[in-house]
Amino acid sequence: MKHTARYYSRLAGRLQWLQTRLEEASKRPDRGDISITTVIIWVASITGALLIAGTIALVISKYNGKLAGI
Known about the structure:
The protein is mainly alpha-helical. The chain has helices at 2-27, 36-62, 64-67.
């Protein structure tokens, strides 16, 4: 019973903290967080880099025997 009361006390505290944060966010919608455009650009650049690295690895593995004499 003691642990259950402590658990619900912590849960109530966390819910209060979350409610406070949500109220603050609704008052100030732009807090300087990373924009969705920045996230899209980062994901696209990382995907592009992985595609380029994968293509290079594929070409090297495909022509590895022919490139051995160079």
